[in-house]
Amino acid sequence: MEEPWTEEDRAFMERALLVAERGRGKVSPNPLVGCVLVKDGHVIAEGWHDHLGGLHAEQMAIHDAEEKGHSPNGSTAYVTLEPCNHFGRTPPCTEALMWAGVKEVVVAHSDPNPTVRGNGCSVLEDAGIPTRTGLLNAEAHEQMQAFMHWCKHRRPLITVKMAVDRNGSVDDREAAAKRFTSPGCLEKVHELRRDCDAVLVGVETVNRDNPQLTVRLVPSTRQPLRIVLDPNSRVDPKADLFHDGGETMLIQKEFTGLSSLLNQLGDQHIQRVLVEGGPTTVHHFLEQHLVDEVFLVHADTVHKHPVPSNIDEATLAQSNLSKVSELVWGDERVEHYVKSINAS
Length: 344
Known about the structure:
The protein is α/β, with parallel strands linked by helices.
């Protein structure tokens, strides 16, 4: 069977995916979307979804073309997500593309949202605008993984971040609470927080570390919701996160199954939760097979009076998590684990 995509097609969609990244941390619960308009083999304009209520990627690209003095009429639109065909905060992108006179639309990933689900491409086809779907589909799915997961399960994607010393300890029980990873690693953690809708910890983490759980070291247009699990009402009411003006959700009831909490968060359009709690909190999620990915940070230090994490590759495998890569965050080595597709 003949390959339907040319190298030029791939290059233009790769550009659209790159452009989409400009909206990271700013558009949830909407997905990251990028669009480039191509005419006579050249990119004449590009757009991305930049903020809630702002222009969608296709609309911004059309506006960009006009600003640059290019007519979008007769161009091909490369879009990372199927154009919407419903009224939300903005008019339908299908109407914008038809109005602009594009001759073809190439889509990376269909939209799983029930309000769309193929309807966007069908409307364009009915209007005489050919569409092709599936170019760099896997890459687009990964870029929009939290949105895709929420559309399928109606609950947030659960990401765990945990730092351990050389022996797998998360803390030194006889020392004052302090961070034991490098500044460069902390910056990467803040990037991860920026990409999440909520950060969750247990009461022990709040009482021991008095964390802020905010995004401070990288540019961000919003702060994540802070969630504290405290079923026995032991949290320190003077903790900073209750008095800094940010939004904090205190959960003071026992969840027999954490899935009920995740369903509640999903109903609030929380699409990705970063669990930064200690071993007890993390193991609650692991034991119920609710964790979708883990970033296990290995620091080159040794705690004199260790607090074991009891988390390693074998433990994570029991929750259907497999190591897919090793990263470097500052001075630390990071193991990245993800849930098997068949287990999700």
